[in-house]
Amino acid sequence: MKALRRFTVRAHLPERMAALDRLSINLRWSWDKPTQDLFATIDSELWKQVGRDPVALLGQVSPKRLDELAADEPFLHQLDELAAELDDYLSRPLWYQQQLEHGAELPNGIAYFSMEFGVAEVLPNYSGGLGILAGDHLKSASDLGLPVIAVGLLYRSGYFRQSLTADGWQHESYPSLDPQGLPLRLLTDSSGSPVLVDLAMPEDSELRARVWIAQVGRIPLLLLDSDIPENDHDLRGVTDRLYGGDQEHRIKQEILAGIGGVRAIRAFTEVENLASPEVFHMNEGHAGFLGVERIRELIDAGLDFDTALTVVRSSTVFTTHTPVPAGIDRFPVEMVKRYFGGPADERSREGHRSSDQSHESSRLLPGVSLDRIIWFGAEDDPSKFNMAHMGLRLAQRANGVSLLHGKVSRGMFNELWPGFDPGEVPIGSITNGVHAPTWAAPEWVELGRELIGNDDIDTLREPAVWEKLHEVDPGHMWWIRSQLRAKLVADVRARLRRSWLERGASEAELGWIATAFDPDVLTIGFARRVPTYKRLTLMLRDEERLEALLLDTDRPIQLIVAGKSHPADDGGKALIQQVVKFADRPEVRHRIAFLPDYDMSMARQLYYGCDVWLNNPLRPLEACGTSGMKSALNGGLNLSIRDGWWDEWYDGENGWEIPTADGLADEGRRDDIEATALYDLMEKSVAPKFYDRNEHGVPTRWVEMVRHTLIALGPKVLASRMVRDYTEKYYAPAAQSLRRTVEPGADGEPFGAARELAAYRERAAEAWPKIQITDVDSYGLPDTPLLGSEMTLTATVQLADLAPDEVSVQAVLGRVDASDVLVDPVTVPMQHTDTADGGNYVFTTTAPLPVAGPVGYTVRVLPHHPLLAGDNELGLVTLA
Ligand SMILES: *Cc1c(COP(=O)(O)O)cnc(C)c1O
């Protein structure tokens, strides 16, 4: 008989062990090994059975065992220590507090929005890298003491669970999660009733959500949940699945995350008596609607639209994660109009007709004009609303997630800054990182502790700390790597058996699994989502060659493959099937396997145990990639196309680069070339090094590469480095901009500075078409100019109604190519030196010639205002 509904009842803990509750609810246990060990001692069998889930463990452990433990002094002692340690972790001054102490001007709060969060496998609210990155961001923010409040959705079925059919086809299932059985608490108001976030939907319906709070160390993660009786049946399903459903479903999710998310934060900070966050960070464009909700709030408080936009822009950071236009979220404009337009505001329902149709205002966002909202998402195709464009228009600061991706993004979004070369598009980059305490194997953490002499993870950012690895004996490092590989092999066998049984095999047929995979064989991992660009099947390009590598008698290789395909992507499922069919063959099945249901717990085993981490995306489509970083933190060597982070940090000795043929238009040939290079590397470089042993059986050259990888990449790949970079380069400047925009103006009214900037933007936009450079002169150069010779330039500029200090006039000079295009020019500011008639001004500069060879120059005018993040921000420029 199947139950109609399920719910979870939490066990009643003996008073003396009440701290277990705190330790299980705060997800900090997920990166604290001693706390995990404590839970394991409660009932080690059950701990494994429930998938290392403390809340589930406490729900199922027998009352008899709890009574036993209540009298177990060593256990209680350990419990008290860990509880005290957690309290200390949550309250002691950390990096952020120290920075404030030293006078740094930092935001008092940062709201971080993401559609997915991968914090721990017990809260499966993620599909892949984007979500795990968000989880790692929160954990590192917690370790640094940064005051972040995170917001997302609670998906009833998470993403999906993957299994395989007998035929090797991906099968999805959607087990329903019970929030009561998860490490969550409900946000309640001062009277104890659940807070409900409320959003007006088309046709007079309402979407309501309650707010769950997951505690990630110091960071509260607010998760909105629409599956509540207060909603109509169809709206209950809004938060059913991550990336499921059609666009109509998707826009509701994004409205809930963005607009509902801001409302959830307001309720949370009020209940908890916290300051409102100053900075809002959109992790990808999905949560972009948060900006329009903030504009609504400010209009509600009495500001006009442009001033409100100025305030919102000053304090918003937007991170883009995709280098492909097809990866960007776009909605039909008509759909956006249906949600944001509306049969006028509330008054129309009371019988007052809205008089001004063109300023139609929505029920969802009263007071905000639909036209302005639509403009935020405008792009080439007038029928589409582009969420990335909205993010860029609502954020004064934006970034990509690796150096290469920053560059690709500047090209991709160049159209929003017409008149500028891609290099000048104001999109920077911060290379992603990974949370070391989550992803480094306990064996390495233990070694680190011995070397450093304490567990202060803050010191991990110092390269000198990693240099201590020079002291470690190669034999010991090899021993750790071999332990980790052996554990992985045991885990792979268990997973293989489960998968074969699920696919319909009988135990009697599975005897071979006991000896499948070998703890001494070179182990290569490939696990990630399965979009086309990641090329899951590149390794199968020449099946015979791969088979020969797997079965080589002297230097065999074993390959572990995993990854989920999006449920709607049959192409991806066909790729998985291709791998499964190859790996099913009795000749090779002991050396290659596809393991179903890739998730954080499987990922961890793979990063710990694989000797080599393979990545072969189509360059430059991998924005950053983080799995290789996690492998590197465990001494795994990357074997990868130079894309994303690997393009930046490959140094010739910390792994291998697969040469890319990324200029080739013929994709088939490109795959052939890159696959051949991959096989060659495996055969001629990777395997020989791994099997080249000294008299003690230690592959010393390999171990030196492992050591070098840890030392060179360890301090770089850390998420704490990433979060500090965000804080210093984005959050702090955004908070400073915000503080300046809200300052009173000349009239003493608050937001005066924002009003001035908004007025300046309007005047600049109006003046711009009339601005002209009417005359440019150069003099002072000798007949034969030499490198460094000085040249004086003057330009006469018609400024329409702008003042000379409201523009930036620049000389741009440098090498020119055959068609007179300036290549990597230098920019020299010109000074206002004279005023002519009729709004004409003369600007001058003297500059040395920066390069030899064919040189050229031009002059340009840009808007300038102290509250802009840069002169290029508005995308306005006039060239001579
Ligand atoms: C790190 C991680 C990813 C991201 O891997 P990429 O190679 O960057 O795509 C995806 N899924 C899981 C479970 C991870 O831990």
From TrEMBL:
One of its GO terms (molecular function) is glycogen phosphorylase activity. Residues 13-123 form the DUF3417 domain. Its cofactor is pyridoxal 5'-phosphate. InterPro entries: Agluc_phsphrylas, Glyco_trans_35, Glycogen/Maltodextrin_Phosph, Glycogen_phosphorylase_DUF3417, Pyridoxal_P_attach_site. Residues 342-363 are annotated as: Disordered. The keyword Oxidoreductase does not apply. It is an enzyme of class 2 (transferase). Keywords: Allosteric enzyme, Carbohydrate metabolism, Glycosyltransferase, Pyridoxal phosphate, Transferase. It comes from the Bacteria. It catalyses: [(1->4)-alpha-D-glucosyl](n) + phosphate = [(1->4)-alpha-D-glucosyl](n-1) + alpha-D-glucose 1-phosphate. The modification N6-(pyridoxal phosphate)lysine is found at K630. Its EC number is 2.4.1.1. Residues 344-362 have a biased composition (Basic and acidic residues). Phosphorylase is an important allosteric enzyme in carbohydrate metabolism. Enzymes from different sources differ in their regulatory mechanisms and in their natural substrates. However, all known phosphorylases share catalytic and structural properties. This is glycogen phosphorylase. It comes from Mycolicibacterium rhodesiae (strain NBB3) (Mycobacterium rhodesiae). The lineage of its organism: Bacteria, Bacillati, Actinomycetota, Actinomycetes, Mycobacteriales.
